[in-house]
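step 3/5: co-fold with 2-(butylsulfanyl)adenosine
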Amino acid sequence: MQTDLFSTGQDQEEPEKRAEALRRDLARYGHAYYVLDAPIVPDSEYDRLFAELQALEAAHPELVTPDSPTRRVGGTPLAQFEKVTHRVPMLSLQNGFSEADVAAFDRRIAEELGIGKVEYEAELKFDGLAVNLRYEKGILVQAATRGDGTNGENITENIRTIRSIPLRLLDLAPPDILEVRGEVLMFKEAFRDLNRRQRESGQKEFVNPRNAAAGSLRQLDSQITASRQLKFFAYGIGELEGVPLPETQGKMMEWFMQMGIPVCNERKVVRGLAGLMKFFGEIGAKRDTLPYEIDGVVYKVNRRSEQEALGFISRAPRFALAHKFPAQEVMTEVTGIDVQVGRTGAITPVARLKPVFVSGVTVTNATLHNEDEIRRKDIRIGDTVIVRRAGDVIPEVIASVPEKRTADVREFVMPVECPVCGSPIVRSADEAVARCSGGWINCPAQKKGGLQLFASRKAMNIEGLGEQLIDQLVDKEIISDAADLYRLDRETLSGLDRMAEKSADNLLGELDKSRQTTLARFLYALGIRHVGETTARSLAAHFGNLDDLMQANEEQLLAIDDIGPVVADSLIRFFADERNRALIGKLKACGIQWPEQTVTEKPVVSPLQNLKFVLTGTLPSLTREEAAEIIRQYGGQVVSAVSRKTDYVLAGKEPGSKLAKAQELGIRILDEDAFLRLVKHDENN
Ligand code: IVH
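step 4/5: write tokens
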């Protein structure tokens, strides 16, 4: 045995054996961490063993093997990808879009097999890229893209960077040859992170996770791929030698798992059409909460013998069907770009689209946000564009398709006058948005927006005063400001479209009720720029009455927590404007009032100062609003999403995914009792 010049900590062991043992252990620990999400050793232990293996390999380069975890990120970038011919072609799937399609598929199979209820394995249809991983004697030797199904590209170096893909199978007696097929994908969170980084470094953003995954796999420099946090799910098999094929698709997936190959847990063995449709419904319901994107589900006849009996049609197996969800992304044409005027005068360009059906609804227009966004996405009138609508999300134009551009497209030009009131449109140098300079007095669009905010639930909470009613009241010049609302009578109201005497009475009742309000609500209802609900609450708590706030100077305003120069400036301008002061006077004259608040001198101790809370589920006695109020009162902050920066999660009944996330991140979880104790306890301190 040769003598080592350095200590591996295991001097007695031969380096070769030690390296082998390290590789095996590191593969197991890596699998537990990256595939099972359940680490079995602390990170520090992994790092220690990894460093030991690195040192060992540096001293004995002949010991480096292709499955060594130190080889995940390769050396020099490739000049180009080599071609790979698949030994077993990579097929595609037949598609179905409706229950009728699924019924026809199931009927045909039942008939051909001559059995009543066919057994299927139902899986997700991942929206990523199909790859083939080739293992020889348990070692990953090659990875290739699907390409045209016959020829793909050799992307082994890139695939090696995907931490959840084993470089060696965990099986001690692996098959001589095993080709695993599956999908490489980018999870939604990694996609958002990547696009944020792209944006911050001034690079082009990716349109969707699929494109981002594709772009990441296509890198000739595997260092870039390594930085992209890709994942893999297996779902099929190519060449296999040395062991028999598992009898069913379900058993094959379990076998993959045993070998340390990642498979998705969202799969089920089901029977007959009813079983298929039930799975489709269940997955459809949770689609938006999955951490990755899918575009449907896949049904596969479970038994291998039955799969083989069914054979193939052209390039797809007869035994499988992809049941697709309605598309979330479609192509259509921009027929024009109009502008809308918002409450603050902000001019928002809106794309008029040739109607398209996307995610179950017909979309005819989509916001383009602002002028810069149009230039950044390079969207022109007449362009073919990709429109996306995921779940309940508002439709969005995500990109133009320049390949489809014709010579007669036109660039968008920001109008010089407000389309509603004709006042000049201005854009200050430091803002992305252009604004109508008319103000709410002159511009009906701004007036309507302001009134909608005034009536909204978190402001004056006037139920029944919706957008259409406000439109009528402004258009017919029945009202010219919020105070006029309180002078409406039954006769005028019941004469309006879609209003009867009963609804008029209800609205009058609501208006009357709204006269008793709080200072915070009133401030928010005024629609002062940059003064949202939270700021309004801080201002009310600080000043206790409106007069003091109206007279406050910049210095006094800046002394308040969370009030910076922009908000202070906006408040001063608002209260300096005679028209706003007149409106406030009129509103008070209409009987709007609030209890004077005794100014809560900033508590000497704010026990929850700077602590971030997330609320989830239903609490036994406090409402969410009340709990939030307590948190804020004691200096804490309520945030909506759980992240590493969250200090506490206050959880009630049916907490959902936020609780799971908190547990995953090891964030402290409180029930209502513990929360109240925390506040009480700290109060005594
Ligand atoms: S099986 C023999 N299972 O769909 C059929 N494919 O059109 C081979 N895909 O390129 C495919 N999820 O990228 C199968 N659970 C799944 C899948 C899946 C996504 C993709 C795959 C392939 C395409 C077939």
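step 5/5: annotate
The domain at 3-71 is CATH 1.10.287.610 (Helix Hairpins).
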